[in-house]
Amino acid sequence: MSNLAPEPEFQQAYNELVSTLESSKLFQVSPELKACLPIVSIPERVIQFRVTWEDDKGVMQVNRGYRVQFNSALGPYKGGLRFHPTVNLSILKFLGFEQIFKNALTGLNMGGGKGGSDFDPKGKSDNEIRRFCYAFMRELSKHIGQFTDVPAGDIGVGGREVGYMFGAYKAYRNQWEGVITGKGGSWGGSLIRPEATGYGLVYYVAHMISYASGGKESFAGKRVAISGSGNVAQYAALKVIELGGKVISLSDSKGALVATGEEGFSEADIELIANIKLERGYLTQLYTAEDSTLPARFKYLEGERPWSHLGKVDVVLPSATQNEVSEQEAKDLIAAGAKFLAEGSNMGSTQEAIDVYEADRVARKAEGLWYGPAKAANCGGVAVSGLEMAQNSQRVNWTSEAVDKELAGIMERCFWNCLNTAKEYYDIAEGELPSLVAGANIAGYIKVARAMHDHGDWW
């Protein structure tokens, strides 16, 4: 890849996958699968385009738009659209690459892709966002469709943006189809979709806790640190509280809230935070409000992440953005007693942090930190997107109970797939917990590589 511009995020994701595959028995048992590696690592198609739109002052603005259609071996390209000033090709390639194997782990027929723009919706009016979404979809609509590529939301793309883009697609293509997921409930959306990533994350970790404790422990009584305060963090927090755990931290780009006592966040606190975030506000606004009860129960750490300020913690759920746990923060979490860490954010830990987790798991065996990687632990969101696609194809709406049951089943199967694959391709010492990151990488890669072989993509 030396002839390409530097792509650090993509290179990190690629290196993590390759190191796992090469350190396992996979290429000894199935040496032919190695031939797929350089092929699966290059996108099938990268679409880049300009987006011109008019702001409320009548001034023309321009942004870059992207769609990385990475791999369609298992189904239509599937992955979110991100609107954020940091969006570039490296980030979208890393996200799309991870999405290939994440989607494979759901067991559903979905390929991998990702897209978005360096447009920043913060500080924009509804009309400006609508005009941008229509301009963005004017070009993207030429390259997507229910049997080709089905985007979804991501950072900066919520229900409002999805609605505008769906309306634009319908107008440009003159057809109603399930071309984007995360839609409104009255026009093709699925129940449980907003909750899915957070709920699925907690379901996955519940299996980790149960397996590690021989079925003796659950979330009940656990101190759980969460970063972020968007959809993933909010619904993960609510599910933890429902299961008897105590949520002791949340954060956003301005700073972190960390509990000072045993109480943690309540459901009412999460509701207030959700309302603040709906208005694109920050946690500091809630913390400094005159009628706020938070200062008596939490400390606000301006410009900080929560990881080095927690005191005692049992479970850690990074749910904000990529590379949000550093090597030193990983060490601080282990020192604070963390036993389980699973990522609600994509590639939430640096490679150095992952090395710390895995070294602790090997050294201290069942007493060490057990790590659940994003491509497995947070696949619940895209899983329910896949279920939304199924409902759209059938022209039906499932109940929330039915969707939640399917989600729970997908996360359980994903956990056991990761666990059993790690056992199969690695030698596990007595008393040692299998590497879930190794199991996830190998299981996802095998499924995609074999499908590509059957299609004649490599031979």
From TrEMBL:
Subunit structure, interactors included: Homohexamer.
Residues binding substrate, per UniProt: 78, 99, 102, 153, 385
Keywords: NAD, NADP, Nucleotide-binding, Oxidoreductase
GO CC entries: cytosol
Keyword Nuclease: no
GO BP, sorted A to Z: glutamate biosynthetic process
Binding positions (NAD(+)): 197, 231
Site positions per UniProt: Important for catalysis: 154
Similarity remark: Belongs to the Glu/Leu/Phe/Val dehydrogenases family.
Record protein name field: Glutamate dehydrogenase
Keyword Isomerase listed: no
Catalytic center residues: 114 (proton donor)
Catalytic reaction equation(s): L-glutamate + NADP(+) + H2O = 2-oxoglutarate + NH4(+) + NADPH + H(+)
Pfam families with a match to the protein in the record: ELFV_dehydrog, ELFV_dehydrog_N
